[in-house]
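The protein record quoted in full:
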Amino acid sequence: MFIAGYLTFSSRFWTVILRATSAEKRETAQRFFLGATPLAMMLLLLFAVYHDPINEAMYMNLALFVVAYPLFDNVTGGGFLYRCLVLASFWLIYAHDSLQTVAISLALLIAVCLSTWVWHETVHYAWWASLSIGLVISGGFWALQTAQPVAIAWGGVMAYMLINLFAFIYWSNAHNNFVEQGQLETRANFDALTGLRGYAAFRSSLEEYFQQVRKTGAELTLVMLDIDDFKAINDRYGHMAGNSVLVSVARLLEDTLQVNSGVSRHVYRTGGEEFNVIFPQQTPDAIRGEVEACWQAVRDAHFEYDGKQLHVTISVGVTALQPGDHDIDSLYRRADNNLYQSKRQGRDTITIEGQTMQTSDRRVLMMPYTYFTQPVIDTDTGAVVHNELLVRTFSQTAGAWVPARTITMTIEAHIGLVQATLKQLPVRNINLNVARDQYMNERVIRRITEFARNNSDIDTLTLEVNQLPAPADFVRVAQLYHESGVQILLDGVGSALTDLQVQPVLKAVDALKFDLKAFSAADVWPTAAQWRDIAASSHKRFVLKGVTHAAQVTRGRELGVVEMQGPYFSEPVLPEID
């Protein structure tokens, strides 16, 4: 009971020390605990020996444990030395043997102290190390007790080891619980991606400041920031690029606030691409310069990901606590309303208490895009046999949607579009255009093959390529794709890809696609017939692309072409942009 009570008290006291928010309070409590408790308990047990000599061995063992086990605690060098001196003083009180024996036992004690200091974590939390140190301490101490019968001495060693084992189990469980609780609190209060405090910590801090303001009448300002058009970054460059931008913006906001305010302010990530900053004892006018500095720093920054320069802006909403605010939700909603007023005013600006600043002398041109599928038709049956996924971007100069030739979308974005498209298609054979560098990229190969193997929603995935690497490299990579059931189609044979380019890799592909629009009226059909014969002789599928009217369908069928594709069969209705 004594040991259980002592350990419980010690554990709870250390929990208070470790969780104290004030370093001064933590140091004061630690010094008191270190200086008073082991020494006081030792003196109390020595007093018990004096009044109850029959149970002397039991009290001696308890006192030895009380002064020895605290060596395992994580303390400063001075605190550890103090504990060693307390242990040594108790050791010497019961040293009744020869001077040589006492000297040897003290040397052993010094070795124990040094080992515990150097390998503290191992000694404290590894059962074999803790029990070994306990055996050395108890054995060394009871070896000095020559006045005691051997049976009593051995009994003392065994009793100490049982106490030591119980203490080790208790402290290990307490330590594991403490670590797990800390991890849970960290996960709850900190955002794993950016390292910023999360929504739970934000609510807690805002509530704490709110209660202080109600008592003191001080000022309190809340600033909400949101990255503009963040979805476009994820869609165009992939979620890894979006994550990189989030981390970079978070660091930039913290650094900018530190530089402009001279104090460390906490930035909270409260969801998605939204951040919040709490300014206690500050009015919106007082912190306007800091807010503008953050806004300007983000719009001037260039974030690099995978060799690409990414640029973003933020919209900001600012509000102060008002007398009518009865809870933090009123303040939060008003900041949110100010933020979305900035969004409605064109983004990349700041709204303070309903007044939007005219700050956007420069707007960031976000590239709108859309996607759709164009079917490949079996003209014998009229059935759709494949669907090519196509991406279009809006040209500000031309004022129209154009093929996205200047954009290389990440494979994550491509796969995201494929997954979204599959849900709407009865025929789940998808053709996906990839650039030459993507086709050869190891990460892309791994991602596409994993997707093809593990996605039951897709029947056949075909990669369309219109630029070729070295023939040997192309064939090697094609084999990797084929092992996962991914087919390869050469797009633009006879135009983008010449006969000299195609022949060395022909055995490694599954289909050829011929673009009618790439040839003049005089050359188109003779060239088409030539490539149709090449496809037939090598047992490859052949697709006529760019079919715009019925006469082309008839002429193609006369050549023996079955699969065709073009606006004649399906013309997408693209969104209008003012």
Summary: Residues 360-366 have pLDDT under 50 and may be disordered. The CA atoms of residues 54 and 122 lie 37 Å apart. The radius of gyration is 38 Å.
